[in-house]
């Protein structure tokens, strides 16, 4: 088994390789505007560090959001393209699940990432493996679960609403890969790499031009 995992649903462009027992290599760059430029080189970096090539990869896993439209699509389209080219399965895992798994917590908490517009994408967890509600998008003050600790960048951005943040701030691909391997080993069904959209995209098809009269 050699799982290639990556996520572009947050400012973290992150990729990792997992051999079924451990993370062999991981690379992350924080840049909210260059997902399309950074993902392919990041994948090449982890492959080189692990001494592997794409032909060795047996499955691809991408963070499926929620997240901003453009960045999220970069990762999911890359996963679909690699799966088709290599004739291997591709899966999608909720980005908030990767944040949660990376926290290592066995007690209830919330994972929250930046949704822009002064809102957060969030989900509530019984422990790092078990999501009990969400994902959803709300203003920080409207997220239910007062008093629960919060992992993810949402807690860093809105400390007045969430208090002291938990690690990790982003959905690092090592945690995403490890979670995917754990679920695959347990025979749990994994979703295809499809985006989790909680909003309409900002870009819209323009309407018909207005008639100009003399």
How confident is the prediction overall: mean pLDDT? 92
Order of helices and strands: EEEHEHEHEEEEHHEH
Numbering strands along the chain, what is their spatial order in the largest sheet?
3-2-1-4-5
- Poorly predicted runs are none
Q: Biggest sheet, in brief?
A: 5 strands, mixed
Task: Determine the strand fraction and express it as a percent band.
Answer: 25-35%
Structural class determined from secondary elements: alpha/beta
The radius of gyration is 18 Å
State the total count of DSSP E strands.
Answer: 10
The helix fraction, in percent, is 25-40%
Distance between the termini: 70 Å
Question: How many helical elements?
Answer: 6
The coarse overall form would be: globular
Q: In words, what does this structure look like?
A:
- 30% of the residues lie in helices and 28% in strands.
- It has 6 helices and 10 strands.
- The model has no long low-confidence stretch (mean pLDDT 92).
- By secondary structure, it is an alpha/beta fold.
- A 5-stranded mixed β-sheet has the order 3-2-1-4-5, with helices on both faces.
- The chain is globular.
């Amino acid at each position: 088994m050699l799982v290639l995992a990556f996520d572009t649903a947050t400012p973290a462009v992150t990729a990792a390789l997992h051999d079924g027992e451990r993370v062999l290599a991981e690379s992350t760059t924080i840049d909210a505007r260059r997902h399309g430029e950074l993902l392919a080189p990041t994948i090449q970096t982890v492959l080189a560090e692990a001494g592997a090539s794409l032909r060795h990869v047996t499955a691809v896993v991408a963070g499926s959001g929620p997240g901003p439209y453009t960045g999220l699509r970069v990762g999911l389209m890359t996963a679909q393209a690699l799966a088709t080219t290599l004739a291997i399965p591709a899966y999608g895992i909720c980005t908030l699940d990767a944040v949660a798994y990376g926290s290592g917590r066995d007690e209830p908490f919330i994972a929250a990432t930046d949704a822009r517009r002064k809102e957060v994408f969030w989900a509530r967890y019984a422990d790092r493996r078990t999501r009990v509600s969400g994902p959803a998008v709300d203003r920080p003050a409207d997220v239910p679960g007062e008093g629960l600790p919060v992992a993810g960048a949402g807690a860093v951005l809105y400390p007045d609403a969430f208090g002291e943040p938990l690690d990790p701030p982003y959905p690092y691909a090592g945690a995403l890969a490890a979670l995917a391997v754990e679920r695959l080993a347990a025979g749990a069904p994994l979703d295809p790499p499809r985006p989790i959209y909680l909003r309409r995209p900002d870009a819209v098809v323009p309407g018909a031009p207005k008639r100009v009269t003399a």
